[in-house]
């Protein structure tokens, strides 16, 4: 009969068995949540007591069957978007997300314009230019 | 063409200067709380100096300050005198959240330095602190008489903040029906 008691004691553990998949989700989630105490660290890296508490919180929420999105929502409801290392795409973050693409397009645009300019007015052949320059320089010297 | 070459990088430089220059004058520790404009998070916590449980109903019916403090918090020492002075003013209702502390340390702290709080709640596992988005003790929330969070101060109170921001806000909230 004693083993029956043991089984009953272990049942809750089975119900919330912490699988390897849970562990990976937990680690990945902690990596993308910012610790607000040491702002350049995720809660996975930070040793701050708050990060410890938040790791415990995410672990418990995964164990109780919450999805990653529900956990992210839980965090942003309390700490704001700042807690997410991967901020959502919305009007205030448009520049953040699209900025690099804009800069790239601007760069392409500039390169394109410069090359088109070259095609329209080919540079004066170097030889001629030098020749004319030398003549002018000699003339200048003569004038002096 | 040449003008574009000069103008575009110059404009980019100018825009960056403005944006980064503004960044210099901002405090990165002050993160806007998403809780402003929302009702206070629900909680049930025991009071310091007893075992009576209280809930968020504590905030209904009067304008309150909610101050997160701990005996281990060095910056709390700096603002404690201000809290004591504020608590002398008529109509001031200051609730404390004694955050991740130990009961004896907290009680000794209040005995030694004076107790500005109408009541202090014991949040020793920090769960309620998480619900309030607490990340840097001390923090002070301003709550209107309907139990809605109207402002949050991160870091110790200063007289400048009290005189220029807090008192006018409290006056405005008290005038609201």
**Could you state the CATH homologous superfamily of the domain at 14-91 in chain A?**
Cytochrome C biogenesis protein
Main sheet summary of chain A? none
Specify the structural class of chain A.
mainly alpha
Count of β-strands of chain A: 0
How many domains would you count in the coordinates of chain B?
Answer: 1
Helix and strand sequence of chain A: HHHHHH
Q: Stretches of chain A where pLDDT falls below 50 for ≥5 residues?
A: none
Q: Assembly state here?
A: heterodimer
Task: Please supply descriptive tags for the structure shown above.
heterodimer; A: 144 residues; mainly alpha; Helicase, Ruva Protein, domain 3; 68% helix; rod-shaped; B: 177 residues; alpha/beta; Glutaredoxin; five-stranded mixed β-sheet; two-stranded antiparallel ribbon; 40% helix
Notes on the structure:
The complex is a heterodimer of chains A (144) and B (177). Chain A is mainly alpha-helical and 144 residues long. Chain A is built from 6 helices and no strands. Chain A starts with a helix and ends with a helix. The mean pLDDT of chain B is 92. Chain B has helices spanning 2-24, 74-87, 103-113, 127-131, 159-175, and strands spanning 44-46, 53-55, 64-69, 94-99, 119-123, 139-143, 149-154. In chain B, the strands form 2 sheets. Chain B has a 5-stranded mixed β-sheet. By secondary structure, chain B is an alpha/beta fold. Chain B starts with a helix and ends with a helix. The chains are: A mainly alpha (144), B alpha/beta (177). Chain A binds chain B through residues 36-37, 39, 49-50, 53-54, 57, 76-80, 82, 106, 110, 113-114, 117, and chain B through 1, 4-5, 8, 28-29, 31-35, 100, 125-126, 130-133, 135-136.
């Amino acid at each position: 009969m004693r083993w029956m008691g043991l089984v009953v004691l272990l049942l809750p553990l089975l119900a919330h068995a912490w699988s390897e998949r849970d562990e990976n989700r937990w680690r990945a989630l902690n990596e993308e949540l910012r610790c607000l105490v040491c702002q350049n660290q995720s809660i996975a890296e930070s040793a701050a007591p708050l990060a410890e508490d938040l790791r415990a919180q995410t672990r418990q929420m995964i164990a109780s069957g919450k999805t990653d999105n529900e956990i992210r929502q839980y965090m942003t409801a309390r700490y704001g978007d700042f807690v997410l290392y991967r901020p959502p795409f919305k009007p205030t973050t448009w520049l953040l997300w699209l900025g690099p693409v804009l800069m790239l397009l601007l760069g392409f645009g500039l390169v394109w314009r410069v090359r088109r300019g070259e095609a329209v007015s080919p540079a004066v052949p170097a030889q001629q230019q030098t020749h004319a320059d030398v003549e002018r320089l000699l003339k200048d010297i003569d004038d002096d | 063409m040449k003008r574009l070459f000069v103008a575009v990088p110059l404009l980019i430089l100018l825009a960056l200067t403005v944006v980064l220059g503004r960044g210099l004058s901002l405090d990165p520790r002050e993160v806007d709380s998403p809780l402003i404009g929302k009702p206070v998070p629900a909680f049930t916590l025991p009071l310091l100096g007893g075992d009576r449980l209280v809930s968020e109903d504590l905030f209904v019916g009067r304008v309150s300050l909610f101050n997160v403090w701990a005996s281990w918090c060095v910056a709390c020492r700096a603002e404690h005198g201000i809290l004591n002075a504020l608590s002398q003013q008529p109509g001031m209702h200051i609730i404390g959240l004694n955050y991740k502390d130990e009961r004896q340390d907290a009680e000794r702290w209040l005995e030694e330095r004076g107790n500005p709080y109408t009541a202090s709640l014991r949040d020793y596992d920090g769960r309620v602190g998480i619900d309030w988005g607490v990340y840097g003790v001390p923090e002070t929330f301003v709550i209107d008489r309907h139990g809605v969070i109207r402002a949050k101060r991160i870091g110790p109170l200063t007289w400048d903040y009290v005189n220029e921001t807090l008192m006018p806000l409290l006056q405005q909230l008290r005038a609201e029906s």
